[in-house]
Amino acid sequence: MKLWGRVNSVNVQKVLWCLEELQLPYDRTDAGMQFGVVGTAEYRALNPNGRVPTLEDGGLVLWESNSILRYLCQAYPAASGGLYPDKPGARARVDRWLDWQLSTLTPAERPLFWGMVRTAPDKRDPASIALASTESAACWRIVDAQLAALGGGFIEGDGFTLADLVLGAFARRWYGVEIANRPDFPALEEWYGRVATRAGFVRFCAPPLT
């Protein structure tokens, strides 16, 4: 199994964390941003989007990080445990958070991360950052309410699933930047403290944001 992507990409981090949870062997090649590669004809033949991550597993070539997560859990079910539930209802509840991350959380969070982490302080746009902070907070308020309604545990109950993994990777960014008047989300903070102890998070998400 081969994974293409740089370790400071949140979408690559998700896949690396999943591989850690599943204890699957793989080789990784740096690609994207300062590493280049993604613009080459060879890489575009694998992933026409020119983005990371891309997974090669035998004859299968797969891109889109959340699709890769689902594939890994279904291709190696003996290792996945309850990471991606078998029952349709439980699986659909996990899937909705993966889709919500793509459709709602990422558009809100990306300007905040890029504005605070990948933009030099003297070139930051305070108004854009403030708006992104407000929109990101609105997203995390939804997650906090979900966790509070369940009385703790994980996003969809007592077991750790792909929903926790995906949202945990993005929560690292939310809690990793300085935000003025950050809202108090007690249930979210308690959950984040718990998922942040998992080996895959510690290894791939916990390092400094770059």
Describe this protein's structure.
The protein is α+β, with helices and mostly antiparallel strands. It has 2 domains: 79 residues, Glutaredoxin, CATH 3.40.30.10; 111 residues, Glutathione S-transferase Yfyf (Class Pi), Chain A, domain 2 (Up-down Bundle). The chain contains 9 helices and 4 strands. It has a 4-stranded mixed beta sheet, with helices on one face. Helix 1 links the parallel strand 1 and strand 2. Helix 5 runs parallel beside helix 7. The longest helix is centred in the middle third of the chain and has 29 residues. The chain is globular and about 50 Å long.
Strand content: 5-15%
Mean pLDDT across every amino acid position: 96
Tally of separate helices: 9
| Count of DSSP strands | 4
Rg from Cα: 17 Å
CATH class of the largest domain: Mainly Alpha
- Low-confidence residue ranges: none
CATH architecture call of the largest domain: Up-down Bundle
Classify the fold: give the CATH topology of the largest domain.
Glutathione S-transferase Yfyf (Class Pi), Chain A, domain 2
Helix content: 55-70%
Sheet with the most strands, sense and barrel status: 4 strands, mixed
Number of spatially distinct domains: 2
Task: Please give the alpha-carbon distance between the first and last residues.
Answer: 26 Å
Question: What is the chain-wise order of helices and strands?
Answer: EHEHEEHHHHHHH
Global structural class: alpha+beta
